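Researcher: I'd like a structural prediction for the single chain below. Treat it as a standalone chain; there are no partners to consider.
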Amino acid sequence: MPLDSTEYCNHPLAGDTLAHVFAASLDTGVVARLEVSDSVAAVRADTATTAARPEPWTEGLEGVARVPHISHDSVLTSVIVVMIVALLLGARSLRQTVTRLWGDVMTIRQRANIFDDSTTGRTHVDVIMAAQFVVCMGVLLYGHFSGLGATSGSYSIVQPLRLMCLSAAYLAFQWAAYATVGYTFATRHITGQWLRGFNATICLTGVLLLLPTLVALIYPTLMHQAFAIAVVAYVAGRVAFIIKGFRIFYDKFESLLFFILYLCTLEIIPPIVVYFLAKILVGISS
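Model: Treating it as a single chain, here is the predicted structure.
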């Protein structure tokens, strides 16, 4: 039977129940006040930390270190641009210069022409084009090998300069070898035409290498594609020169053996040696 309010208050267990309820309420209030105090303290600490920290705009963003690469070398790019300008200013007509060089590659005269003035203004333009060939080959070789992970440490302009010196030494060796073979097995006039053909192929190849070299410097991700295009241009120039040499020195079937020896000695083995020397210069041992 349920108890009324008077009976409930007079019940012997009512006092204990009320005491327990009061104590539980008191504990809950204390805990709540402690939690509020902790929250206020945490907010004050966070506010103090935020106030002590400088504003983000006063610190800026941490920069990312740029890995040195040949594509970042403004000196090489400037040198190539200067050579292009010097070529355009030095040649009386770029079209006439290219026509003359192409004639040196394709034409063979059995007799000298006293009215031939093709050597006028030839030297300085040819030197500029040959220098372009040397610089472009050095840049493309270094870019190719650095893309293969050959180089270590920070980039230095000395590294591509080594390959440029190697390219220049290779051209000097070729010219000396062709002069020796020509003066040994042909007349002075024929040898002169052969050497002019060699100079012309190098000059024209140097002009063709300008585009892939600039692409490799401006777009480093296309370095290997630019190197492949340069190889095709170089091989095309060598094929044109070999054809001229065949037309000069092939006389009968027996001379074919000497021509094959010439191909192996001066056109096949030296480029392979230069390639492996370039790998050694940039740090690849195998």
